[in-house]
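Sequence in, structure out. Go.
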Amino acid sequence: MMGGLHIEMAFLKVIGEWLYDSGWIAAITTAGVATAGRAGSIQKGASTSRGQWAHQVMVAALYILKCKAFKEYTERVTDSAEKLDYQQWLDMMDNIHPQFAYWNKTMQLEILFFTVYEISKGG
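Output:
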């Protein structure tokens, strides 16, 4: 049976494999979140505390971008009969924009990681 640390490391490795070749390392190094070497170790699941922090930053950034995009959508669509609610808009965006779907799933995966992490720590 795996302990909490090993579960966390395995989950971070899964996220890292999901993010492989996505431009994630370039994004977090450009943003100053981590150096390229540290980003690589985070992506491999080797650095748990830095990994948690980097993925928290990532979830926050994705959430902000998603909220801004939805706000722009609501300002663009003036007919309230045609305006989609947030969940309908997410579903539509997932269906017509593969890149949006990928980063939306990334955000969901990272939130799942934090949920599992909190449960494993007894929180």
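Check: The CA atoms of residues 98 and 104 lie 10 Å apart. Residues 4-115 form one domain.
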